[in-house]
Amino acid sequence: MPPATNEKQFQKRVRLERRRLRKLLKARRRRRCARRRGSFRQCPPLLVVKAIKPVSSHFELQETSFNYSVPPRLDFANDAEDTLRFFDKLRILLSARTWRAVHLDHSKCEYISPEAVLVLIAELYRGDKFNPKLKKLCTFPQRNEIRELLQQIGYFRYFRGEVPTTQGSLKQHFLSHMHGKLTKGSTVKSLLDHFSEVFDFTVQSKALLYNALIECMNNVLEHAYPNRKTDEFSYVEWWLLGYRDSTTGDIYFCFFDQGECIPKTIRTRLKDKIRSGSALIRQAVEEGVSRTKKNTRGRGLPSLKKFVDEAIDGDLSIVSHKNQCIFHKGREPRESTFNSVLRGTLITWNIRGAIKNT
């Protein structure tokens, strides 16, 4: 069966399950009301919610809880389509307020990129906003390096139960993920101090990177969530994660928000409305585009690309809605368009081989 048909069947079955559960809860409420009145009215029999046959091998529904298996690879760089499909289905399930528990099975996961972990944390956080009583359980990964990665980032704090033991074999030193609703200069400063252990910043370069990250936060507040006052499912939040590698001299950060995509926020002119999303992302990085038309705005992404161009090696990747654009030093930008959707914008920045002189 073609993937598109499977996706439609998956969404249709999720909608049917939600409808059945609503009827189940409604019947229970009628029975309780009848008992309180002392006259037990004849109510329709309780609906029995059966587990549906999963369309995907990663998905299983069981009454008011669901199990979801993390695929063997979650990676926006090399397996973007499958990764986006996983998050698209997870978001549908977490947005349903009928679930009482979710169980994520990580046992089959062989590789997960740091930016995929950050998006996963953000989706779990949004699920808490929609359903604060939702219980979250997980099966730990079998690979020690994945367990250590998730533990350093602070992923397991969103689940109930014990934290897995690790052997301390991970080369990268991660900062625990950070998120917020306001522009926080102290958060950016802590990340730059973390990088300074392996990277020789000049005064100008440090200020350039600081301003670029501050603008990312400002864009979230000003443009990413235009319906936050009228939409109950919209909330202003950004997410940040970074690491350094003392062995190779790599520094890395990823920044994520769950708001409007970049092409939508900058499509203000007619000629922009007929261009592809990845082309608009490329223009925003190479030329600097701002909807405010201010000379001081729209310089964040070009500043990040400037670091990549001047480094020994590095790359800048942006995934927004169905579009991806990757800028690698010494190569032409790579543009891609996918079938699945990322609700928001993910910026990944990596500089390699910049070992600090001592």
Give an overview in words.
The protein has 358 residues and is of the alpha/beta class. The protein has 2 domains: 170 residues, Transcription Regulator spoIIAA (2-Layer Sandwich); 188 residues, 2-Layer Sandwich (Heat Shock Protein 90). It is 39% helix and 22% strand. The strands form 3 sheets. Strands 7, 8, 9, 10, 11 and 12 form a 6-stranded antiparallel sheet that branches. A 4-stranded mixed sheet has the order 1-2-4-6, with helices on one face. Strands 3-5 form a two-stranded parallel ribbon. A hairpin with a 6-residue loop joins β9 and β10. α5 crosses α6 and α6 runs antiparallel to α10. The longest helix is centred in the N-terminal third of the chain and has 35 residues. It is globular, with a radius of gyration of 23 Å. The relative contact order is 0.10. The N terminus is likely disordered.
